[in-house]
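Need a sequence for this fold. Nothing fancy.
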């Protein structure tokens, strides 16, 4: 029987998956611009910490998941290996190497906005670890990413609504956890103001174009989750009523149906397992905001369980999904 909550046995299994890939440098898909022959370097030279997990952003959120599981289940057997890994990786010279990479003129848009958001999500989780050394060591890299958000968001006239790494609602949603936890009121205000500027007037969303062939986010549901996270409860509920006015009738119906994954060895098609997991995360989070409507809460929770049932058996297996899906499973199971 599939569990829909995160327990210690599941945490141990997910931790072992991540421990096997965050330090696995190949296969590797670098988001790297070559400005000359000297820039053709192996992953560990480019990224002393986040060189594994097929790509930089997946490695970052692999470390986030390990941190989250360590905080939730410090007595699990994998904790010893997580702590040893962090003691090896979260050291000043390696973080300096990550910062040095970002100083290159060609790296201004590196991992914008998805990797930026996950780096801040990692920082927010490291900040509540018992051992504060790791969080303090990461701070220079966090400062670089915060500055990039602050510089970029006022320039971004339009949101990006695709269901992949470029989605801006997802980035605001994760960054909000960092800003609130760090007490960075200016950043939190910028995130909220940006969300209202981008999404505040949206209404009667038809979920047109969902799902696309390589989505791992629902552009509709992640926008709603972003607004839930950043707005006051009453303001969000008023906005949500306008945004999805027919949701009580399970419309748009496409949002309630888990997607089919035809080939998990294909990296793009494998994204669709992530779509099922991220939809489950959003459905559960949105249900939590609807405390005055038990029927809608039940409807949303049922949709979440349906999506979890479709995706959880496939968190591990083929490396195209295995290097990242467990992180999204944790988001959904903890929502």
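Here you go.
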């Amino acid at each position: 029987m599939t569990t829909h909550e995160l327990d210690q046995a599941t945490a141990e299994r997910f931790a072992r998956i991540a421990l096997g890939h965050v330090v696995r440098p190949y296969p590797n898909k670098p988001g790297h611009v070559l400005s000359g022959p000297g820039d053709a370097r192996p992953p560990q030279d480019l990224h002393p910490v986040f060189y594994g997990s097929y790509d930089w952003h997946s490695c970052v959120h692999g470390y986030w998941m390990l941190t989250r599981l360590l905080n939730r289940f410090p007595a699990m057997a994998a904790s010893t290996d997580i702590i040893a890994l962090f003691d090896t990786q979260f050291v000043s010279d390696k973080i300096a190497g990550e910062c040095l990479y970002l100083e290159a003129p060609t790296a201004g848009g590196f991992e914008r906005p998805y990797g930026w958001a996950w780096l801040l999500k990692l920082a927010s989780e490291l900040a509540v670890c018992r051992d504060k050394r790791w969080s303090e060591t990461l701070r220079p890299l966090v400062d670089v990413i915060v500055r990039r958000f602050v510089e970029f968001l006022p320039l971004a006239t339009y949101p990006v609504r695709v269901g992949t790494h470029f989605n801006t609602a997802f980035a605001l949603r994760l960054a909000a956890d960092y800003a609130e936890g760090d007490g960075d009121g200016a950043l939190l205000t910028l995130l909220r103001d940006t969300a209202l500027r981008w999404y505040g007037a949206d209404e009667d969303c038809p979920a047109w174009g969902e799902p696309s062939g390589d989505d791992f986010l629902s552009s509709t549901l992640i926008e709603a989750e972003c607004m839930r996270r950043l707005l006051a409860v009453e303001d969000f509920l008023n906005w949500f009523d306008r945004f999805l006015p027919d949701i009580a009738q399970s419309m748009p119906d496409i949002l309630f149906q888990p997607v089919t994954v035809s080939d998990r060895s294909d990296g793009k098609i494998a994204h669709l397992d992530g779509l099922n997991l991220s939809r489950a995360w959003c459905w559960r989070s949105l249900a939590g905001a609807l405390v005055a409507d038990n029927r809608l809460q039940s409807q949303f929770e049922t949709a979440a369980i349906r999506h979890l049932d479709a995706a959880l058996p496939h968190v591990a297996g083929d490396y195209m999904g295995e290097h990242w899906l467990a992180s999204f499973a944790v988001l959904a199971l903890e929502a």
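For context: The chain has one domain: 8-31+41-334.
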